[in-house]
Specification:
Blueprint lengths: L4 E2 L6 E2 L47 H30 L5 H22 L6 E9 L2 E10 L2 E6 L2 E10 L2 E6 L5 E5 L5 E4 L2 E5 L4
Length: 203
């Protein structure tokens, strides 16, 4: 038997797989006025439905999270103090815990900067999009290799170079006017002239 589910905003029965209530248009679990298990009214202060006994999971208890975070911070400080004491014994010099924390922050910063520099600056591969022109579906693509690109629409091809600056894509065809577009942060989509081209991951 399929379990019923109700909107916590209006109390209407809804599809368990739906993320938005089709009756009131509110996201599932966003507002707690009704029990999601039986659809009966509840108050924001309730942790358990008094009608069906099910927990009202939309209410979050942050107190435990704060306590765990505080305990983790205290433990980190204790461990840093122990490391500083051990380092002092090994070197014969007094080393403060704050020096170790500063050194750790510096190492993490260097690692992050190194990763950013190692990330590829150029695009690589083929990005395709389907558009409709005069009622006809047309497939277009941009192929990027190094600093060069090839734009193909049907049998027509345009070649040129490109560069990326702060996610802005600047295309310079060998014959024609420069175009501007956008590159997504993950470099899986490219938008040119309002058309979104998605990277072909099949190869």
């Amino acid at each position: 038997m399929e379990e019923k589910q109700y909107c916590t905003n209006c109390g209407a029965q809804m599809d368990p797989n739906a993320s938005v209530c089709v009756t009131c248009g509110v996201n599932k679990g966003k507002i707690k006025k009704y029990c999601a298990h039986c659809g009966k009214p509840v108050t924001p202060e309730q942790d358990v439905c008094t009608n069906c006994g099910e927990p009202l999971t939309s209410r979050l208890d942050f107190s435990k999270g704060k306590e765990a975070f505080k305990n983790l911070g205290d433990k980190a400080l204790r461990e840093t103090g122990n490391l500083a004491e051990l380092a002092s014994k090994k070197t014969g010099k007094k080393i403060k815990p704050s020096y170790l924390i500063g050194g750790l922050v510096a190492v993490v910063t260097v690692v992050i900067v190194t990763i950013m520099f190692m990330m590829p600056k150029n695009l690589n591969g083929t990005y395709t999009a389907k558009t409709t022109f005069l009622g006809i579906e047309v497939t277009g693509s941009y192929n990027f290799e190094g600093e060069k690109f090839t734009n193909k629409v049907g049998e027509e091809e345009v070649h040129g170079t490109y560069r990326i600056k702060d996610n802005e894509l600047i295309l310079k065809p060998t014959n024609g006017v420069s175009l501007k577009g956008r590159v997504s942060d993950d470099k899986k989509t490219v938008t040119v002239n309002g058309v979104e081209y998605k990277k072909d991951e099949s190869n």
